[in-house]
Automatic annotation (TrEMBL):
Protein's recorded name: Mannose-6-phosphate isomerase
GO molecular function: isomerase activity
KW Isomerase (keyword) present: yes
Keywords assigned by UniProt, alphabetized: Isomerase
Length: 391
């Protein structure tokens, strides 16, 4: 028999599906493409492009990923393919460096304006190539993914001869002294996407290595907290509950692909994230290591990752107490960030009282939203199937 939380989660998922496929993807398909090539970095609050700006390479990659994900779920496959090809064209023609890595900023249609290879942006290029290649069977995307996978290994992997800096990957070139968990997290995600697209076990092995490296270098086991940096003092560090939950989801995905995961780590990260939020009625962007508020604003992505983390932990532990948390987080995402926005778009940041802090609309947020809504939709369907099994 279907429980009330299960019915409510199913209804919430259907509401988000209607919004994503009937409102949001069409909105961005109409408003995001730049006639000069690629996609606009930002729109104003009326949905009109903000002209004359360079774009982050990650935005060009994320847009290709979003339209591929839409096509995978049946949204206008041919139109989605054309939009994904726009992302491919920009990445390959305007963003790629001679060494096979990708720069940081681009003037779409003209070329790179910041040649710095950031691990973060390269991870999103790999995610886009792998997803576009898998969904559409696109040979150009699959080739680009394999080449970038190799370039990251060749140019950005830290080697054993680097002493205290050994392990993981260079966050950018030239390599900084401060180590950062966030780009490693997204390289883990991209590596899993490439493994799922290609079956290349070196990608799965990379994801395993990074997960263990992050646990060793960034995880404070006593506090149950994931630090954002290594190689800096406590006063220069901070924690983000959203990233704690994002790693819960990633560890579950790694395990689903047959990867080795440290036992109990996902649950400990989830517990630590929930402790950070005790007594709060919003999800702050970042907090000091002692839990005090550092950035008192709630971003869309923090809620998407919290919802994904709850879903992932339910898959791992079948805890019914997580169902109301999934529902509450999804409702907050809708009420705080979707419903008040331009139809099909979003309000990306609010203050603790729920007031908008945005002066523009960034398409980059779509990556977080569409992935989380796809997870919610799949989860709701699995709950429905489970409820029909005699127990």
């Amino acid at each position: 028999m279907t429980s009330e939380p299960e019915r409510d989660i199913s209804a919430l998922a259907k509401r988000f599906e209607r919004w994503m496929y009937e409102k949001s993807l069409p909105f961005w398909a109409d408003h995001a493409p730049d006639p000069e090539g690629g996609f606009y970095e930002r729109l104003d609050l009326d949905g009109q492009p903000i002209l004359g700006e360079d774009s982050r390479v990650r935005v060009q990659a994320r847009m290709g990923y979003c339209f591929a994900l839409g096509a995978e779920n049946g949204w206008e496959p041919e139109r989605a393919r054309q939009l994904a090809n726009r992302s491919l064209d920009t990445l390959l023609n305007d963003c790629r460096r001679a060494d096979g890595l990708y720069g940081k900023m681009v003037d779409t249609g003209r070329g790179r304006t910041d040649d710095t290879p950031e691990l973060y942006d390269n991870a999103f290029a790999l995610l886009a190539f792998a997803t576009i290649g898998r969904v559409f069977g696109d040979v150009r995307a699959l080739t680009a993914a394999g080449e970038l996978h190799e370039a990251i290994e060749r140019l950005m992997r830290r080697n054993a001869g680097e002493g205290s800096q050994a392990g993981g990957y260079r966050e950018r070139l030239p390599a900084p002294d401060r180590r950062e968990q966030n780009p490693h997290m997204h390289l883990t995600e991209a590596s899993l996407a490439w493994y799922e697209a290609s079956g290349d076990r070196t990608a799965l092995q990379r994801a395993e290595r990074i997960a263990h490296f992050v646990a060793e270098r960034f995880f404070d086991a006593d506090a149950g907290l994931l630090l954002e940096f290594a190689g800096v003092g406590t006063e220069a560090n901070h924690v983000e509950a959203g990233h704690q939950f994002e790693w819960v989801w990633l560890l579950d995905r790694l395990a689903q692909n047959g990867g080795a995961v440290l036992k109990g780590l996902a649950g400990t990260l989830h517990d630590g994230g929930m402790r950070l939020l005790e007594g709060l009625d919003y999800l702050p962007l970042s907090q000091e290591v002692d839990g005090s508020i550092r950035q008192a604003k709630q971003r869309t992505w923090t809620l998407t990752e919290k919802m994904k983390g709850h879903i992932a932990l339910y898959r791992m532990q079948s805890r019914d107490d997580l169902l109301p948390l999934i529902l509450a987080t999804g409702n907050s995402l809708w009420n705080d960030h979707i419903a008040p926005g331009l139809p099909g778009a979003w309000i990306d940041a609010i203050d603790p009282d729920g007031r908008s802090l945005v002066e523009d609309i960034t398409p980059a947020t779509g990556y977080h939203l569409y992935l989380a809504l796809d997870e919610l939709s799949s989860f709701a369907k699995s709950l429905d199937q489970w409820s029909k099994v005699p127990r």
